[in-house]
Amino acid sequence: MRVAMIGTGYVGLVSGACFSDFGHEVTCVDKDASKIEALERGEIPIYEPGLDVLVNGNMQVGRLTFTTDLANTVPEADAVFIAVGTPSRRGDGHADLSYVYAAAREIAPLLTGYTVVVTKSTVPVGTGDEVERIIREVAPDADFDVASNPEFLREGSAIEDFKRPDRVVVGTDAERAQDVMRELYRPLFLRETPMVITNRQTSELIKYAGNAFLATKISFINEMADICEKTGANVIDVAKGIGLDGRIGKLFLHAGPGYGGSCFPKDTLALVKTAEDVGAPTGIVSAVVEANASRKKRMAHKVIEAAGGDVSGKKIAVLGVTFKPNTDDMRDSPSLDIIPLLKESGASIRAFDPAGMDEAKDLIDGVDWADNAYDAINGADILLILTEWNEFRALQWDKVAKAMPGRLVVDLRNIYTPHEVARQGFTYHSIGRAPAIA
Ligand code: UDX
């Protein structure tokens, strides 16, 4: 099959590379000429483990190409994927669909032979209808169907998620389009991957419902963690105790400083807006959005309380600023709320992140960026763990003790057990567990 992938952002690039690895002939198109030139040189603009090898390998065998030339790519394609950004619209939280509709308008006059236009971007229910209307308006005689095929890629494990998904969701009533989509995902049939084939609206909603449910699960366990802190209960055991119930499931019950990233914050907000628009407002998702936003801010106060109510003049070593490990993505990261609030409270911050510092430098002012974890810890009064990168999971405590004069550790990711840190002579505060005093 020949695939045109419009947009070489995170989703477009990963999906394009994986489809080419499935054996299809993929051309990734982007308007940004410098990005395309860099990709042609094999330079990957995002941090995603394994993506460089996948892209370069498939480029070498000629199955994956990059271009700015839509006009020569679309006519050849059996499937044209729209994988452009759908950011939150400033002010109202609606998904901004202008890039999706612009892509539809540009694709339309180029469609040649039967083509499936697939929305890969996360788009609110009804967007596929509008994409179809636009194409029909621009090219009334075009032979095409519009299908929805949401992505469920986690940053940091996106290739694995694409190649070994729990399921593939395809939304279209058109049998011809279903056949094309089955062919594209054929390698997954060998693994007996379930394929949910449904109508377009359902497929579009599945993506939002999935992310909103996971965000709800996280917010739920975060609230249980707050109750644990007040009552002496342990949230890790609560998560285990409920997660072993097959009806609940053990994943996404890790309490922390609140969810961030490119999907959950944006998609929960967009779902709230869609629900309002269609007259079926969602109390649950609205509450999750609010709970998560206020939680991130509250985390700064948790650090201040752990420090005895005042951090002015204190040196805080921050380990991790990205919204989760194995990514350089800073979007809606809790660190963007926590660090400025600590600075406003008079603390000075020295931070280290294995991949996120370049991006973070533009987003957080007045932080002293360190070369490595111990360099950040050097001279600190407080050690604050914000992201659970593997390399922070095995700190050498004797080295930490020598480097920092303070004896307070605040771990917002629960990567240590309280007694093991206390045994090293530190007072340890974490999420949903009683503090351990040195
Ligand atoms: C998510 C979805 O998982 C993916 O299916 C979707 O397509 C895109 O959004 P991603 O944003 O890359 O992926 O990261 P994910 O691993 O889901 O984590 C999202 C946020 O939730 C992170 O801030 C993470 O720290 C937080 N989280 C996750 C928790 O706080 N606790 C958990 O148990 C799991």
Automatic annotation (TrEMBL):
InterPro entries associated with the record: 6-PGluconate_DH-like_C_sf (IPR008927), NAD(P)-bd_dom_sf (IPR036291), UDP-Glc/GDP-Man (IPR017476), UDP-Glc/GDP-Man_DH_C (IPR014027), UDP-Glc/GDP-Man_DH_C_sf (IPR036220), UDP-Glc/GDP-Man_DH_dimer (IPR014026), UDP-Glc/GDP-Man_DH_N (IPR001732), UDPglc_DH_bac (IPR028357)
Q: Taxonomic classification, please?
A: Bacteria, Pseudomonadati, Pseudomonadota, Alphaproteobacteria, Hyphomicrobiales
Question: What GO biological process, any one, is recorded here?
Answer: UDP-glucuronate biosynthetic process
* All copies of domain UDP-glucose/GDP-mannose dehydrogenase C-terminal, residue ranges: 317-418
The record, for PROSITE patterns, names: PROKAR_LIPOPROTEIN
The organism sits in which domain of life?
Answer: Bacteria
Q: Tell me the residue numbers annotated for binding NAD(+).
A: D30, K35, T86, T122, E155, K266, R331
Give one Pfam family.
Answer: UDPG_MGDP_dh_N
Recall the GO molecular function terms of this protein's record: NAD binding; UDP-glucose 6-dehydrogenase activity
Family, similarity comment:
Belongs to the UDP-glucose/GDP-mannose dehydrogenase family.
| Functional pathway | Nucleotide-sugar biosynthesis; UDP-alpha-D-glucuronate biosynthesis; UDP-alpha-D-glucuronate from UDP-alpha-D-glucose: step 1/1
Q: Could you identify this protein by its name?
A: UDP-glucose 6-dehydrogenase
Catalytic center residues: C263 (nucleophile)
Q: Which reaction does it catalyse?
A: UDP-alpha-D-glucose + 2 NAD(+) + H2O = UDP-alpha-D-glucuronate + 2 NADH + 3 H(+)
Sorted UniProt keywords: NAD, Oxidoreductase
Q: Which residues are involved in binding substrate? A: F152, L153, R154, E155, K207, F252, L253, H254, A255, G256, G260, K324
* EC number in record: 1.1.1.22
